[in-house]
Amino acid sequence: MHENLSQPPKPEIDMFEPWKTFCSRFIFRWVEYDHSTSAAAIAFYVIFSLAPILVFSVTVAGEILESEPEARQAAIKFLNNAIGETSTSPEAAFKQALETIDHTDAKPEAEMAPAEPPPAENEAPENRSYGEEIVDQIKLTAFRKTGFLQSSFLILVALWSASATFMQLRNALNRIYGFTADGLRGSLIAVALGRLRATLFSIGVGLLLALATLLSTWSHALWEFLPIGRYITPEMQDFTTVQVISWITVVIVFYCMLRFLPMERPPGREVFAGAIIATIMFQIGKYLINMLAEGNTVAAAYVTSRVLVITVMWIFLSAHVLLFAAEVGHMLYSPIDSPFDKYRKPAGE
């Protein structure tokens, strides 16, 4: 008769146990800090932030290129790559739905019906990209009709209001990294410096978007200069340029948000890990959403507000991605939550 001997734990179980703890701790922290509510607040404040940042970036790019239409076209291309190409108007979506419903009941006489006249030149097309609809709403002439001092004051006020988005993101990141202010004086200083930093960050994002617009415009001259450019089709050149600019811009924006928005500087390895994770998730999610939600019928259901709705939806999802990546990047190197032995300290220490 064999004795009942205690079996040693399986190595597979020991190997995955830290990751189980890591996942459970992640879910607990996500619920405790209510990151979904923070993402919703960030998306709401984008309503006040989007126009000032786009006005600033297109204005800077237009002044450098000495051509506002060229800057607008480059901004449209950049936004289309980030949000989606097609924005079906509600009239077109309704017409398409009627055609689908009446397809089985179509009569032969319908084929003999006269064709509809072409739309007038000043009539808006049925299918327009979101980039076109967003940029076309920017009225730069409103700033140019006023004097220099008044325009400067209006731009500063607009950028100050744009900082509300980054203030919400700053508060969420402070909770993730565990940064708090000490006392009333420290809280007041933290709020003042936080608002100033968020305003400067709004200016920085506008300048970065302007730079991305300029690089997209100047890329054609760069391809002509490169020896390999003659062997690549113009379509592939545009695709490569857009992808490179998109990835680099997203990495820089995410890294700067995680590094400079919080009250203190988080460790560089946490910031770098979070920025890389956020960029990969953002790019993959962008293509999946564009592929699964072709036509963006959800936004079309809101009729004239569809551009604002789809933009807020994208920012809401992007904020989730960034907060998710920041939380993961922080926990990977945390002495309490890290799944790696070399970063995790024993419970007694």
Describe the protein's topology.
Blueprint: H1 11-33, H2 35-65, H3 68-83, E1 87-88, H4 90-101, H5 108-111, E2 127-128, H6 130-136, H7 141-144, H8 148-177, H9 183-225, H10 234-260, H11 268-292, H12 297-300, H13 306-332
Antiparallel strand pairs: 1-2
Helix pairs in contact: 1-13, 2-3, 2-8, 2-9, 2-13, 3-6, 3-9, 8-9, 8-13, 9-10, 10-11, 11-13
Describe the structure.
With 349 residues, the chain is mainly alpha-helical. It has one domain (33-97, 125-332). Helices cover 72% and strands 1% of the residues. The protein is built from 13 helices and two strands, in the order H-H-H-E-H-H-E-H-H-H-H-H-H-H-H. This is YihY/virulence factor BrkB family protein. It is a multi-pass membrane protein.
Short description:
By secondary structure, this protein is mainly alpha-helical. Helices cover 72% and strands 1% of the residues. The chain is built from 13 helices and two strands; from the N terminus they run H-H-H-E-H-H-E-H-H-H-H-H-H-H-H.
Uncertain ranges = 87-126
Please tell me what the overall shape is.
globular
Q: How many strand units?
A: 2
What order do the strands of the largest sheet run in, or round the barrel if closed? 1-2
Number of domains: 1
What is the N-to-C order of secondary-structure elements (H for helix, E for strand)? Answer: HHHEHHEHHHHHHHH
Distance between the termini: 45 Å
Oligomer: single chain
DSSP helical segment count: 13
